[in-house]
Request: fold
Amino acid sequence: MSTLPDESTHSSCNHNHGNGAAHSQCTHHKESGESCAHHDRPLQQVKNIIAIASGKGGVGKSTFAVNLAITLAQTGAKVGLIDADLYGPSIPTMFGLLHDKPEVVGKNLVPLEKYGVKLMSIGFLVDADTALVWRGPMLSSAIKQFISEVEWKELDYLIFDLPPGTGDIQLTIAQTIPLTGVVMVTTPQDVAIADVTKALGMFRKVNVPVLGLVENMSHYELPDGTKDYIFGSHGGEKFAKIQGIPFLGSIPIDRAVREGSDSGDPCILTHPDSATSKAIKQAATEVTKRISISNAG
Reply:
């Protein structure tokens, strides 16, 4: 899959993304010499696996992942969301589940569920004020447990809310499961785009399809209807054009987004007709379109 250091034995596999089919271009072999058919691939009941990434913290990636998941669930889809930011889990807060714990059935965890979305986060398993002091192998092990030891069952979409950076967690996910694709999230300013450039490069190196880019916090709409481009104008859209990736939309800043994230009542539910919620819904529509195109290819 890549020349990068690889914890996975499937290092040169050209995944057939999105539909759970066997990997038709796999060049590696089992010890017996037989071609690997990936019969033991995890998440076989999941139709589409989507990563939400940014490369940089503070751009609203988790907020977009949460509202995207809820938007997809509102269409009747079966949706799951994995909080893969083990050092800074935010999904418990954003769903108002700070004190809830998942049940254990047999050897597996049962994901929590709210707003029609199945959820798993390290924040459900450790106290909120407990700092995880883990090195890479432990991080990778925890992510693999979220993948293979949680009762996800049938899902149309499983979304991974990735941490900032291009480290062990991103690499583990990219090399453990066949991602349908990744959605990049940035804010318009150059300092954010510099980091999303690195993250985009990483996903390209490991052959993960890029579904497109969302520009978050694109502008603030003033009472008179004019737009204040606080972080610069159209930086994400320009970046997407330069990189040759789809631009999935611009999402404006809205106080209701912050309030909803803190209270566990996402804006897509509390303010469904706001400009921000409409932009999120439009971006979600574009994501599903790109998934259909990726799967068809």
The chain is about 35% helix and 20% strand.
